[in-house]
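Hi Y.,

Following your request, here is the sequence exactly as I used it, all 84 residues.
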Amino acid sequence: MDSSNGRVLVVVVIATVLFLVGRRFQRTVDIWAGWGKAIKAAADAAAKIPGAKATAWAALRGMIVVGLGALVLFAVLTNAIRHG
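Below is the corresponding structure, written out as tokens. Let me know if you'd prefer a different format.
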């Protein structure tokens, strides 16, 4: 391959291989960064679970109190109408 065509072909092949390797490397770096962000997002979400759980239970207790209050009010009104 002493001709200039042979040298050009070698340069083109080397450039193509370097391009493909560079693309694969960049994709690997992007995927690795995405994985790190996903881990951080999962950790942030896990940190919010106890607070969300406490809020949900507080809302349920509040609903039970309001429901019991409405039931007592309904019973008092029913009793007042019946004896009134």
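DSSP finds one helix and no strands in the chain.

Thanks again,
Q.
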